[in-house]
Design goal:
By secondary structure, the chain is mainly alpha-helical. It is 71% helix and 0% strand.
Length: 292
Amino acid sequence: MIVTHKIYTKQKFWLFAAPLLLFYTAFIIYPLIMCLVYSFTGYRGIGALEWNNFANYTRLIHDRYFWLSVRNSLICAVSLFLFVIPLSFLYALWLNKQRKRNTVYKVIIFASYVIPGVLCGLLWSFILKPNNGLINSLLALIGVKGPAWIGANGILSPISFSMVCAWSSMGFYMSLWQAGLKSIPADVLEASSLDGCTGTSQIFRIILPMLRENVTSICIFVLTAALKIYEVVYILTGGGPAHASETIVSYLYTTTFDGMLYGYGMTIAVAEFVFAALISLLSMRLSRRNAD
């Protein structure tokens, strides 16, 4: 007689899930709740909480520096979206074949991802400096005056931020694409090739439709990453001149810790959370509509 034991029980489930739930509640849920609470106060780091109702949100609506940081973050998001997604996909497609030298290429592309954000910002500061940066110095050799890539009152600064972030994260997104490409059955691609579907047609008719969930995840990762750009801004421009190159996170940091406006800083954090949630929901809704 064979005796079977019930492996899965509710007690065992809660035994394994409880530490993670406690950790998630303590470091994610509780800070989110407190952030929302502080956004309705005029707290400045000392003293008791003083409720000011919706005064912070009224100030946020009329804060031109906040909307300037939103504009810069949107420019970063669009630039990252247009640059990272197609290029990382082409890299993954190119390196998907099993070849010895492809391993070396993968290491080279992925190496930038393991560089800390601060070091990445320092490296690119020597490249993008308006006066004596590497790019403008090379342009000066051929008699061309280079623009102010960073620190200018225009759209070049956020575009430069996004290019730096794209360079540092290219290996990560390439690995996500490769994980999806490995999941596509080889016989499907072979059958499509025999039917005459090759090259670009195979990419748009076979590969990308089968990677729909990967595409959605990568789009969400890219767009939310654009809302979290901070280290690069801090190292390259510090948000200047006159907050012209601030992103949402850098303006949040400046307001909260430099200006000692903790309540108003939490209001900016709530606004950023709403932006990120809307972007994620919109991406998932569009993906479901395309699937239908």
